[in-house]
Amino acid sequence: MVSSLAEQGDAEPVFEASHGGSSVTLPLLGAEHTLVSERPSAVMERLRIADPPMRVADLAELVGVSARTVQDELATRELLGLVARVGRGKAVRWTVVRWTVVR
């Protein structure tokens, strides 16, 4: 994995030891590469046509995946600036800000 990242010109993972074990931090790939698929996902498709913004539970039900799967995808896409949270707490809804990663 480390050599594959280096071949692609990406940052290497960070290995850290702590009192109870160890951890590995993988780089969040930038504009040239993304951790999410280049093709639009079913979650993004639903969000794009949604008006008003949608809740995680509603997206999960519509797409047929778990709420955790939707949360993970939205968190990654939020870091890439593709989606945004609207509201707070249990009232949080999600909306598409930008459809593609700017290269």
Describe the structure.
This protein is an alpha+beta fold and 103 residues long. It is built from four helices and four strands; from the N terminus they run αββαααββ. A two-stranded antiparallel sheet has the order 1-2. Strands 3-4 form a two-stranded antiparallel sheet. Helix 2 packs across helix 3 and helix 3 crosses helix 4. The longest helix is centred in the last third of the chain and has 13 residues. The protein is elongated and about 45 Å long.
Write out the CATH superfamily name of the largest domain: Winged helix-like DNA-binding domain superfamily/Winged helix DNA-binding domain
Gross morphology is: elongated
According to CATH, what is the class of the largest domain?
Mainly Alpha
Determine the strand fraction and express it as a percent band.
Answer: 15-25%
The low-confidence parts are 30-35
**CATH architecture heading of the largest domain:** Orthogonal Bundle
Going across the biggest sheet, name each strand in turn. 1-2
> How much helix is in the residues?
25-40%
CA-atom Rg in angstroms: 16 Å
Return the CATH topology of the largest domain.
Arc Repressor Mutant, subunit A
Layout of helices and strands:
Elements: H1 2-7, E1 14-18, E2 21-25, H2 42-49, H3 56-63, H4 67-79, E3 83-86, E4 93-96
Antiparallel strand pairs: 1-2, 3-4
Helix pairs in contact: 2-3, 3-4
List keywords for this structure.
alpha+beta; Arc Repressor Mutant, subunit A; 4 strands; 2 domains
Provide a quick synopsis of the model:
The chain has 103 residues and is of the alpha+beta class. Helix content is 34%, strand content 17%. It is elongated, with a radius of gyration of 16 Å.
